Sequence to fold (435 residues):
Amino acid sequence: MTQISSSNPLLTIDKISKQALTVISTLHQSGFSAYLVGGGVRDMLLGLLPKDFDIATDATPDEVKSLFRNCRLIGRRFRLAHILFGREIIEVATFRANHEEDSHSSHHKPIDYRQHSGHTKDGMIVRDNVYGDIEEDAQRRDFSINGLYFEPYSHTLIDYANGHSDIENKTIRVIGDPLQRFQEDPVRMLRAVRFSAKLDFNIESQAKKLVQSQGHLLHKISPARLFDESLKLLQGGYGVKCFHALQENHLFSYLFPSVQKLIEQKHETISPFILQALKNTDQRIGIGKTVNPAFIVSVLLWYPMLKLKSKLLADNQENEFQTLLLASQEVLKQQQSYTAIPKRLGFMIKDIWLMQSRLEKPTKKNAPVVLAHKRFRATYDFLELRIKMGETQHQNIFNWWTEIQEVDEGEQQQMMQKLPSNSSKNKRKKRFIKK
Ligand code: ATP
Ligand code: MG
Fold:
């Protein structure tokens, strides 16, 4: 073990959330040990602003709960304590071990023994998971850079896995045997790629080879968990880098196979289209704006959907709108066995796609409906992206939609009055040329 009574100037109390400090000192007062752990410590050591702070302690979840009124226990397999402070949640986890059947069972003293072994529904292999001590807790974490513990009051940094030097060398190193740890939980491969992209770190070479060759292990992971991980990759503020890193490490096909297929067929516009959307998303997150997960998925699956639509039309489906609806449903359905898109998002994605043609052909009747639609903004952003990428030429109509959002209600009425009454192509063209 390396215990550094750290004088590292980056580890200062003022960088740590007041709430996390309160939780730690309350645990201390009751005689428990408590440390900041994981991404918060890692990011502080990198001079980054930590996203959140997790705490590890030797108190059991019930003991934690008894100390805080604002505490909820979550999780079935591993109970975690969530301590709520308004919108901020501090997650408190009890130290736990991750024992192999055949290893040192003589010197572990579980406080609570759970008989879970085999696969969970999330696809992880669970060796005997039991509560343990801090050193065991460090061993079950994914990467050395995520296995650092910091106790802010005594300013002690505990580093069992050489994480501090790996941070300095910008290396992502798996704790333990990389193949075993990836087999145990293949999502760690996606996490390695995400941290390497976000932090500009290299994945240590043995682990990198495995990441590039063992992607198939992800088939064991539940589509719901893969969807969550996909969002962390694409909407974590480093989407462009993560997209490239997923490609380089041959993992993207396990998340969005229909997209990967088009990329491999050298579809001309799909990658630039996705990258432009990811760039916009990264910028929005960079300035603290929120992003809608439906938007990025609607971008990813747009070309696979259009491709299916063309196929259906060629196969004698006649009604254009019906075919669009059918293709949308089918593409979303096929995606469910890889990354499970929550129903609510599925509806939003369909709205974005189905409203494109109405946005491109505004009429007296549909324009007010479109403008008032709760997905208007996402649909408008989507049209902007399509125009920017040269997929559609409706720049003048797009400008009209931009203008109508900026004027008052009276002027909006006037603008709408000038629209054609129906979307018959010739009429629409004439009106717009006059305008
Ligand atoms: P982020 O900046 O994305 O929040 P993080 O490192 O804090 O990064 P979390 O997903 O919040 O990541 O997890 C907190 C900590 O829990 C990690 O730092 C790591 O120590 C541990 N951890 C999370 N997921 C795994 C996993 N799949 N296997 C092993 N340890 C994990
Ligand atoms: Mg975190």
Remarks:
- Residues 38-39, 51, 54, 141-142, 146-147, 185, 187-188 surround adenosine-5'-triphosphate (ligand 1) (CB under 6 Å).
